[in-house]
Amino acid sequence: MIGLPTPSDRPTALDRPAPAARRWPRWLRRGPMEGLATALIAFGIFMLMQPVSLALYGHSFAVILTGTLAFVVVSHFPE
Are 79 and 30 a contacting pair, CB within 8 Å? Predict the structure, then answer.
């Protein structure tokens, strides 16, 4: 039939931008939060390898674990 839109012509939910109320703040999106989680992991590795403080060494595993869990959670955030 002439003039009727085909299914490929109809807009889908992926074509429309998300409403402003549903968008996440820019600082809470995947990119910045992945960087923060990666920095936390790197700081935990630094704490593990430094030769100065036994207290830093003692808390390094918890910091690395927190950074790793944060990275896993943040990887599910929207872009």
Answer: yes
Residue 50 near residue 57 (C-beta atoms within 8 A)? yes
- pLDDT tens, N- to C-terminus, the chain (79 residues): 566 666 666 666 666 666 655 777 777 778 888 999 999 999 999 999 999 999 999 999 999 999 999 999 999 887 7
Other C-beta atoms closer than 10 Å to the C-beta of 76 total 7
Q: What is d(CA 61, CA 6) in angstroms, rounded to the nearest whole number?
A: 57
pTM (whole model) above 0.70: no
Residue from 26, 27, 31, 62 nearest 44 by CA: 62
User: For the chain, what is the radius of gyration of the CA atoms?
Assistant: 22
3-state secondary structure of 53: coil
